[in-house]
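BUG-328 | component: ligand-complex export | severity: low

The export step for iron/sulfur cluster jobs runs without errors, but we want the raw record kept on the ticket for reference. Input record follows.
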Amino acid sequence: MTNEKPILVETKELTKYFTGKKDLLNLHPQEVKAVDHVNLTIRRGETLGLVGESGCGKSTLGRVILRLIPMTSGQVFYEGVDIGAYDKKQMWQMRKKMQIIFQDPYSSLNPRMTVYDLVRAPLDVFGIGTTEERREMVISILNDVGLDRQYLNRFPHEFSGGQRQRIGIARALVLNPEFVVCDEAVSALDVSVRAQVLNLMCRMQEKRRLTYLFISHDLSVVRHVSDRVAVMYLGSVVEIGTKHELYGSPLHPYTRALLSAIPIPDANRKRNRIILEGDVPNAYHPPAGCRFHTRCPYATEQCSQEVPVLRQVGDGEHMVACHRAEEV
Ligand code: SF4
């Protein structure tokens, strides 16, 4: 079964390499392949969850898609147009359509600005509306995210973490974007307010027909909000599928290990946790072949030599990069 929703964002062989420290003789700068030949599609109106351990490249991927940091090579298409080739002026116009919600509401809001100024700032930057119209737009979006107009003249430090993230969401959505990268958007929040903010994000998606790339290390949260989920390991996507395919029948040994670590909210049930052997490889010198082979219990000779490509398994949307997916 194929999904009929049109593709909004697509990456083709997208890479981002960071130049780091030099080698022992100080001759050649070494590279970290933070994002390595990633091919992804994100459909209009869906939430694509992006999971993986910290440092796997998921936040970098989100920022490269938005062109907040330059790519090393590859392409990013938005509605079929290669925005990687856009100049500054063209990209400026795209900013209205593509926004980001950051993880940390404490540091992403200027402490010296009032809520009104913070949320109005994007409208000022793009010269949208008159002063009065901007005020109405700010009040309207704050109302949508559950903040009353009485808070307009308050400063970020006067709010709780959950309220600050609501301000961050209002600021990201005031321009009426189509595509939003949510980068660990609820990770810094207390468990008690996390569900409220997640529900708010889902409501806003429905109301404004938003498309989300939802980046998180928390697989329970991703399951709650996503339509499809992609798993990253050391800069590469190793598995992608619908939420039901990925959580119901994970194929990649790394995905299985991640899923086995999700706590079950039932004291009488136990999950067989898969403990990965070995350390996370040095990002400057990732293993040859399958990058997971140094930690994979199913690794063979072939795994240490041949890079597994992302390939379709079954007749759904499930894709996996593992030589032995069918066997294990
Ligand atoms: Fe494990 Fe080999 Fe599959 Fe990599 S390709 S995940 S090493 S079985």
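Assignee comment: Attached the raw record above. Residues 252-253, 290, 292-293, 296, 298-299, 303, 308, 322-324 surround iron/sulfur cluster (CB under 6 Å).
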